# Entry
Amino acid sequence: MDVSPYDALLFVSFGGPEKTEDVVPFLENVTRGRGIPRERLVEVGHHYFDRGGKSPINDQNRAFLAELRKDLADNGIDLPVYWGNRNWDPYLSDTVAQMRADGIERAAVFATSAYSSYSSCRQYRENLFTACDATGDVTDAPVLDKLRHYYNHPGFVAPVVDGVLASIEDLPEGERDQARILFVTHSIPTSMNDNAGPEGGAYVAQHLDVAGVVAEQVAERRGVTHEWDLVYCSRSGAPHVPWLEPDVNDHLEELAGNGVGAVVMCPVGFVSDHMEVVYDLDTEALATAEKLGIDARRSPTAGEDPRFVAAVRDLLLERAAAERGEAAERATLGSRGPSADRCPVGCCFNQRSQLPTLAGEDSPQYAG
Ligand SMILES: CC1=C(CCC(=O)O)c2cc3nc(cc4[nH]c(cc5[nH]c(cc1n2)c(C)c5CCC(=O)O)c(CCC(=O)O)c4C)C(CCC(=O)O)=C3C
Ligand SMILES: [Fe+2]
# Structure
């Protein structure tokens, strides 16, 4: 398998605390300069403290990495896989320092975030720049090519569909066919969605597109059409700043008022069952549903499903071929087609943070 021009794969994630003492410094890393109200931080701190200070995300990434290394080896790809986080150990800058020491020249970058927006894409690209800058000259750091968005890759969609089907089957028989599917993702400020992607609005548009695909496949497989909505969780920020709505809990109330008795919550905005999923959905939203008398299930994320792991290999091979100037097959579902390999200038722009980025058209690593 030809993976040239790459001599490494860099796996980038959010990071999370592993023990009680980590929680406050982790939250400081995440929220530095972002104007998050103190009450919100205390509240989110509790989600972690209540679970011994440990987020599930790092163990999920370790498990994914083990499967990914196995998948690559099984398919004859001999490529070192590095792991760096934006907000916790192993920190991205330490990982890039190691890559420099190992003589890595060019790496494909896979981020555990599938959609466009400042928080879910551009901020990752800022952090790539900072990590290269903090460890020497950006232009002699490994060239970092972020793999395209994969929310619409068949290997991401397939396990999500299976998960929704399994959750529907788990409902009492008399309720299954009426079950409403709530696709859930992280809320972001509406202004952040307005600037998401090259033309704006991409965060919501991508979610709506993939939700439609999942709903359609579920309907095909069951022979029953389920109504669905896109809803949001984990709202943060100051109360006067508008964020995407409806919140999943508010929406459950509205559905209960309309006589909806069964719901499947599909966390399509997330790639693993991390804290947003186990707290905001499994703890909070399921309790809301129970209080309202709605029978609810939360369907699994793609996690370490072998089809999702294989999607990373597919994206790597696709991009390697494209960078070699060969025709590359780009698997997608839905109506939006593949996102650009290199983010256009100004993609996911954020007024409040104008740090330099890598992996876009204007990356200093692509100059000349
Ligand atoms: C779009 C999006 C994703 C999905 C894409 C992706 O995965 O990247 C995501 C993922 C995650 N968010 C996470 C944790 C946190 N996010 C916060 C704050 C914020 N998230 C935002 C957006 C997103 N976040 C935004 C606009 C803020 C406001 C502050 C700011 O403008 O940056 C805060 C601070 C407290 C609070 O404000 O709630 C925490 C602790 C964890 C780790 C979970 C774990 O530990 O298992 C993960 C995977
Ligand atoms: Fe977040």
